Amino acid sequence: xxxxxxxxxxxxxxxxxxxxxxxxxxxxxxxxxxxxxxxxxxxxxxxxxxxxxxxxxxxxxxxxxxxxxxxxxxxxxxxxxxxxxxxxxxxxxxxxxxxxxxxxxxxxxxxxxxxxxxxxxxxxxxxxxxxxxxxxxxxxxxxxxxxxxxxxxxxxxxxxxxxxxxxxxxxxxxxxxxxxxxxxxxxxxxxxxxxxxxxxxxxxxxxxxxxxxxxxxxxxxxxxxxxxxxxxxxxxxxxxxxxxxxxxxxxxxxxxxxxxxxxxxxxxxxxxxxxxxxxxxxxxxxxxxxxxxxxxxxxxxxxxxxxxxxxxxxxxxxxxxxxxxxxxxxxxxxxxxxxxxxxxxxxxxxxxxxxxxxxxxxxxxxxxxxxxxxxxxxxxxxxxxxxxxxxxxxxxxxxxxxxxxxxxxxxxxxxxxxxxxxxxxxxxxxxxxxxxxxxxxxxxxxxxxxxxxxxxxxx
Amino acid sequence: xxxxxxxxxxxxxxxxxxxxxxxxxxxxxxxxxxxxxxxxxxxxxxxxxxxxxxxxxxxxxxxxxxxxxxxxxxxxxxxxxxxxxxxxxxxxxxxxxxxxxxxxxxxxxxxxxxxxxxxxxxxxxxxxxxxxxxxxxxxxxxxxxxxxxxxxxxxxxxxxxxxxxxxxxxxxxxxxxxxxxxxxxxxxxxxxxxxxxxxxxxxxxxxxxxxxxxxxxxxxxxxxxxxxxxxxxxxxxxxxxxxxxxxxxxxxxxxxxxxxxxxxxxxxx
Amino acid sequence: xxxxxxxxxxxxxxxxxxxxxxxxxxxxxxxxxxxxxxxxxxxxxxxxxxxxxxxxxxxxxxxxxxxxxxxxxxxxxxxxxxxxxxxxxxxxxxxxxxxxxxxxxxxxxxxxxxxxxxxxxxxxxxxxxxxxxxxxxxxxxxxxxxxxxxxxxxxxxxxxxxxxxxxxxxxxxxxxxxxxxxxxxxxxxxxxxxxxxxxxxxxxxxxxxxxxxxxxxxxxxxxxxxxxxxxxxxxxxxxxxxxxxxxxxxxxxxxxxxxxxxxxxxxxxxxxxxxxxxxxxxxxxxxxxxxxxxxxxxxxxxxxxxxxxxxxxxxxxxxxxxxxxxxxxxxxxxxxxxxxxxxxxxxxxxxxxxxxxxxxxxxxxxxxxxxxxxxxxxxxxxxxxxxxxxxxxxxxxxxxxxxxxxxxxxxxxxxxxxxxxxxxxxxxxxxxxxxxxxxxxxxxxxxxxxxxxxxxxxxxxxxxxxxxxxxxxxxxxxxxxxxxxxxxxxxxxxxxxxxxxxxxxxxxxxxxxxxxxxxxxxxxxxxxxxxxxxxxxxxxxxxxxxxxxxxxxxxxxxxxxxxxxxxxxxxxxxxxxxxxxxxxxxxxxxxxxxxxxxxxx
Lengths: 459, 269, 601
What we know:
The structure holds three protein chains of three kinds. Chain A is an all-alpha fold. Chain A has three domains: 59 residues, no CATH class; 133 residues, Cytochrome Bc1 Complex, Chain D, domain 2, CATH 1.10.760; 132 residues, Cytochrome Bc1 Complex, Chain D, domain 2 (Orthogonal Bundle). Chain A contains 19 helices and four strands. In chain A, the strands form two sheets. A two-stranded antiparallel sheet of chain A has the order 1-2. Chain A has a two-stranded antiparallel sheet with strand order 3-4. The N and C termini of chain A lie far apart (69 Å). Chain B folds into two domains: 113 residues, no CATH class; 120 residues, Sandwich (Immunoglobulin-like), CATH 2.60.40. In chain B, 41% of the residues lie in helices and 21% in strands. Chain B has a five-stranded mixed sheet. In chain B, strands 4-10-9-6-7 form a five-stranded mixed sheet. The radius of gyration of chain B is 27 Å and the shape is elongated. By secondary structure, chain C is mostly helical. Chain C has one domain: Up-down Bundle (Cytochrome C Oxidase, Chain A), CATH 1.20.210.10. Chain C is 61% helix and 0% strand. Chain C has 18 helices and no strands. In chain C, helix 4 packs antiparallel against helix 5, helix 4 packs parallel to helix 6 and helix 7 packs antiparallel against helix 10. The interface between A and B is medium-sized, with 36 and 27 residues.
């Protein structure tokens, strides 16, 4: 008797379980402790900190419902950054449609065959599924009927739903929690649970500084720069290529990272501006800061570094010129040697400094406060692209947030005493010389790495 | 215990043990329809591996049904209440001889039937580095570098060198020509990884410090997932790649294009 | 006292309370009796309860794995809050690697081996061979207590920076040796290695004791070919430990040296892990090789698989014969096949390394040896079936579990042939079919045998019976859910699903396997929940079970001629063994069982 009861109980539990779908808890945004600590007034005022959090929620939403606050001018222009595809050009959108067709091939084939029961729920697109279910609920039996006031049929509309899918920020935030959160943290602070064990540490988006862009003038990254990181990964770091996910999902992630970065920047600026007597300066000031941050990102595209012409060949003359620049000390050359060392393995004297607190020598720190080692150029491993143009951009504009400076226009004195600024040709010479350092077989490179491997190296 | 209870217990126990072969076989019979079966093979030697799997499956299935069936029958037949004593037998030399010799022969047969396929996949290499079979000597198509948690595919420059400025490197996507014996050098930069392409029936660990030759010949164009099959750290599950099998001319075009793109001036970025 | 003066009546009729239990009457203090006991029975019971507690912990870790596979990245009930507080109960990727690493380690080193050899080895060996105690009682006690530092270090590893070890229970370098390779390879891995060493030394002490006791302390007339198969299983397992454990101990020390002193035994030159190069940190090029560890580890751990199953086979043989009321079929082939499995077990370790970069020609040798290991296993199965033929099967709880063992071992044994076949292994290596295979052997095999043994020898341990009805309910549920969990894993493996993958459904190939994984997880939760019946039965019966006499099962082996529970020194009369352990149903005899030490006039 008791056995039957137990059996029935277990069976009931099993059936109940089958329809059961546990939720992922949503972690709230965390305040930027470092930025708050830097402003004594703010650090001493929990009320102000709450106000700051409230302002940020107003401007950027919560992790559960992220979204930009729409300015009045935007509403007039019917511009809405929360409609994901705002970033894409027509060509990009066509490419996205092609990628969606591949990603949802099974669903689209089922719809085209008229077999709606066979349309499987895609795993990472909850918003798409909701919209699809809502549409299907209204759909007539005959999918060839004309849809609303369009020219197409219901079938076309259902296919288009999949084809033109671009994830909402809310759906992406959920995706971010699954794939990115454990390193980059809920607010993009680079402080997830896995983060402490990684070298280099995951990027903290909040200062809005991104190392790897194709841009000069320390500009904020473009959507395409973030997409490239998602697609290619950052080689020999814990950031892998995420190309396994569809283009739509990556676009969504790039948008969400952008939102987190803008949110972080606004937070830092507001925290900086806070004063005990004036507060945050009122809603107007907050909105001004918001617009300032957004505007800075808008302008990114003006800064792309493109070399006008063919990439010059690596002639012996260029290599020799590159070597002179590489080895030349400050004022005489590009002074690469001071950090990267004479053989390029990253053992130059300026790479290290005395820690003012401990009095011990250590590698210099980057803007995020992590020790950073100059790249070992002899390994031939470049974190973000090994094309000559990638190195050209690194040398031309420097690496944001690190001691690697901008070299274009750097003043040097030639042997004959004449002054000049480094130009594009000089940078190509350096590129070719640097590439020649990494071209040696790995075995050779290995044997002269004496004591220089990347300890807390930057990228 | 009452007679009824004893009877019910016998029935329940026998049915329970009977469910093992019945449901066991049923699961395998319906597996393919449920998608719980091998993904479609597209490599030249995958068919042989599938054949060997099926061969063993049949031998195993017959043994499984016979032994489990015998067990069920024995449990049912000899658990009935009986006042007489059990058969007083300490064994049978003859039976022991039979059930040692027959499985032994079968097992030796199984062992020998596996060797050819193994030698073809893992021992003989297209470049003759393991020259057990006459192959035309070919250069490796690419160097596959595994690292935490990324695959990098390095294609040699036009002269076939893997060191040099013109090496083409690809992250995640691995392009290979169809119907060609492709030899790759498998290497790891940090910890153990494993190069696993289910549809090719191919798996090989990547070991730091070793350079392991791996070959395959994909017979159908398409894109196939590359999976890391050896625990490589917390991001093991993120370590994915994709193999794109292209027609010969498309592959050549891709490679040529990739070599050109290496010297891009950045205008398309 | 000569044996002929003993009554020929079954001793089980005499209530244990009336029997003169102990040779000496001095009072033993609580601490000496229950904690620092040198009595093999108490040590056996200590191992039993320790093993059951660690089994529960290992089981809970398995539930964590199952939760993640059924519902990746969602809030894990109960365990999640405990293990992953900072993420609100969601498993972290490094936490998931820790879960399966610890599950495997705990189950192998702190559950199965202590339960089979520690608990039943200790309890049964002196009783079944007619000895008053182990040859080295103090060493025996030390062996038990030596396991505790292991357990403590293992669970301390959870709390270290970076969490528990996360390189799998196989701890393959360089993941395990290079600190920056994984969070768990910070101090967690060192603690893990130390724990393993402690547990190994504990097993070694046990093994020395078992072999010595079995060789030197058998009762008069107990020739080796009259020993119950349990003793044979334990003896051969102990010999395996004696030969194989030193290799593991040496290997763990080498890995500790790698980790603590950068010895570089297992690190290849030019590895760049997490941007820390061990070679450069060392200042010298490492001259080691990652495959060396795999050879050393599997040279122990493959025989360890047999350490985990040979005693189980012995217990099951005893239980089958007793409850079938029939002599074991083919006693000698049973003994030879145990020895055959053990012997072959030493030359098959390479089958774990078919895909590792091992010389593929050598793989062929390992393949042949591995396939041949199916032969003695098949002989054992046939002999078990032979035992049931013509028997008078009593469907008691231990018998059901023992038959369940045979049914499950057939599955585990047969699926092994695929793994042994090198070409097929290319596809199935490290997939879930491997997981299914070894769980059929170790869980559905060894754990079933452990349950059977607990039900069977419980009356001898505590002088009371376990509740049979509850036991049967426990059996039926356990059997059903076990198959629900592990049989379906074959299917996952055939579809190509990899082990140790925290979120398999991001792969297109695996996306459709989530419902199947959810089914498996439901079965797993039910399987663990079902064990409440067992735990209740165990503790309830310890205090309120029906009292029994010496021989409730009317069995032949010597332990049943001792009082239940046996007192200090085990036997209250002189034993002289006159026959083998399996004389059930002799048509000439008055009773259908003939105890080993009872002479029939």
